[in-house]
Amino acid sequence: MARPTMSHSSSFLLPTTDSAAAAAYAVVVLNQRLPRFAPLLWNRARLRVCADGGANRVFDGMPELLPGEDPDEVRTRYKPDVIKGDMDSIRPEVKEYYSNLGAEIVDESHDQDTTDLHKCVSFITRNPPCSETSNLYILVLGALGGRFDHEMGNINVLYRFSNIRIVLLSDDCSIFLLPKTHSHEIHIERSIEGPHCGLIPMGAPSASTTTTGLRWNLDNTSMSYGGLISTSNIVEEETVRITSDSDLIWTISLRN
Ligand SMILES: *[C@@H]1O[C@H](CO)[C@@H](O)[C@H](O)[C@H]1NC(C)=O
């Protein structure tokens, strides 16, 4: 079955990049330690949203990531546009600080049905920082590490918004969804990512997945929990191609 091809690249993590011009980035910060590249992505983003306690992480973490600069100046420069969520984790002084700087604070404690990340992504899709949402990337910092149920909830958001490009990022890896509606071409930025990668049939088993560019390629291979899932694979080529009858989670290690 012929499917359209979707291209993916992590060029937003490169210190300098031209391709960033074509894409529009929104950054979401959740309540985990900020990865080292948080300032870079923040500067590159057109919209910055903190989920609840994520605001504490920006308040505490940005000055730590930029030592030698005046903490208050850093905090003024790295101000969230919007703070959303339950508001049970943000410290009162952090809330007041950013509120005084003009950040929009939206208390959503009445909505207990969706996670903080869900609320942030849904806000961004309703207020996109660009006209074409196909050019929009939502980069999520702090989605991994900490409680496992939170991590699984964040991965579920990738499935809930499978038509939006959402990338979960930590210091160690990036994760995104490969919808089965497309064939996928992943351009590997070797200076910043790899070689370890995984291809995981998280939502449902796959009866047939085919890849090129990996050390252990799949050829019309079935994958499922309890059977084969592709972990600790290795990227061998500049471009990895993946086609599957099922939505898959792609993950690749990030270099220090
Ligand atoms: C893929 O595998 C299935 C099940 O083993 C088989 O029926 C099918 O013909 C294979 N397709 C290709 C393109 O090899």
From TrEMBL:
GO terms for biological process: thiamine diphosphate biosynthetic process; thiamine metabolic process. Keywords: ATP-binding, Cytoplasm, Kinase, Nucleotide-binding, Transferase. The keyword Ligase does not apply. InterPro entries: Thi_PPkinase, Thiamin_pyrophosphokinase_euk, Thiamin_PyroPKinase_B1-bd, TPK_B1-bd_sf, TPK_catalytic, TPK_catalytic_sf. Coiled coil: none annotated. GO terms for cellular component: cytosol. Pathway: Cofactor biosynthesis; thiamine diphosphate biosynthesis; thiamine diphosphate from thiamine: step 1/1. Residues 182-249 form the Thiamin pyrophosphokinase thiamin-binding domain. It catalyses: thiamine + ATP = thiamine diphosphate + AMP + H(+). It comes from the Eukaryota. Its main location: cytoplasm. Its EC number is 2.7.6.2. Pfam families: TPK_B1_binding (PF04265), TPK_catalytic (PF04263). It is found in: Cytoplasm, Cytosol. SMART domains: TPK_B1_binding. One of its GO terms (molecular function) is ATP binding. The keyword ATP-binding applies. Catalyzes the phosphorylation of thiamine to thiamine pyrophosphate (TPP). TPP is an active cofactor for enzymes involved in glycolysis and energy production. Plant leaves require high levels of TPP for photosynthesis and carbohydrate metabolism. Belongs to the thiamine pyrophosphokinase family. NCBIfam families: thi_PPkinase. This is Thiamine pyrophosphokinase. It comes from Leersia perrieri.
